[in-house]
Amino acid sequence: LCTGSTVSELVVIGEVGQDITVPCHYSVRNGNGVTSMCWGRDRCPNSKCSRPIIWTDGWRVTQQHSSRYQLKGDLQRGDVSLTIVDARAADSGTYCCRVELPGWFNDQLINHKVVVKEARISTASPHTYTSEQTSAPGSTSESSFTVTRTWPSVSASEAPQTASTPCSGPSDCLDVTANLQNTSVSLPSQQHPERGLYIGIASCAALLLTLILALFLT
């Protein structure tokens, strides 16, 4: 008898790189009623499948366009769901599941709209921690600075090291500052010409006074 084909439509959504299962079942009672069917990449036509990708006679797969299209369900129980392995964006589109039932125009037709979206990727940037060190309260020094000091000519064993690299942290800066404050350097005494002139004048005056006293006594 001609009862007319059954047509329905479903939407299946998946992600790129995942396996997507497009459902399709038909009724099988007590092992009877197992029949052939096909999957196609287009809406179901009046007969067969447009652009067929896989066929089964109800017991095993008889034709397969690609190994990425598989029937993993129990065919003898009417589970002819299509599994798309490692889905790609190009797999999006309309799929036809056509189960061939006895009688004119009795085939069961299901059109599926498959949407394959890009895999969800976190857009958060890697955690980047940026810390700005500030000087202690009441301190006029900056958080990061370079200490450079020129020392007088002394022996290599006594000469302090010159700190010319930026401080890696506040504690390092404090250590460098303390070292600089606690370091004592013997500076060579500077000569004062004025002091020598005064000593010479005093000596001449004393000598002159001694001569005058000697003449007076004579």
Automatic annotation (TrEMBL):
Residues spanning the membrane: 196-217
Keyword Glycoprotein set for record: yes
A cellular component term, taken from the record's GO annotations: membrane
A GO term for molecular function: phosphatidylserine binding
GO biological process, one term: cytoskeletal rearrangement involved in phagocytosis, engulfment
SMART domains: IG
PROSITE patterns (alphabetical): IG_LIKE
Its membrane topology: Single-pass type I membrane protein
Keyword Transmembrane helix part of the UniProt annotation: yes
Keywords assigned by UniProt, alphabetized: Disulfide bond, Glycoprotein, Immunoglobulin domain, Membrane, Signal, Transmembrane, Transmembrane helix
All residue ranges annotated as the Ig-like domain in the record: 17-122
Gene3D superfamilies xrefs: Immunoglobulins (2.60.40.10)
Matching InterPro entries: Ig-like_dom (IPR007110), Ig-like_dom_sf (IPR036179), Ig-like_fold (IPR013783), Ig_sub (IPR003599), Ig_V-set (IPR013106)
Location of the protein in the cell: Membrane
Chain intervals for the UniProt region annotation (Disordered): 126-147
Family to which this protein belongs: Belongs to the immunoglobulin superfamily. TIM family.
This protein's name: HAVR1 protein
Gene encoding the protein: Havcr1
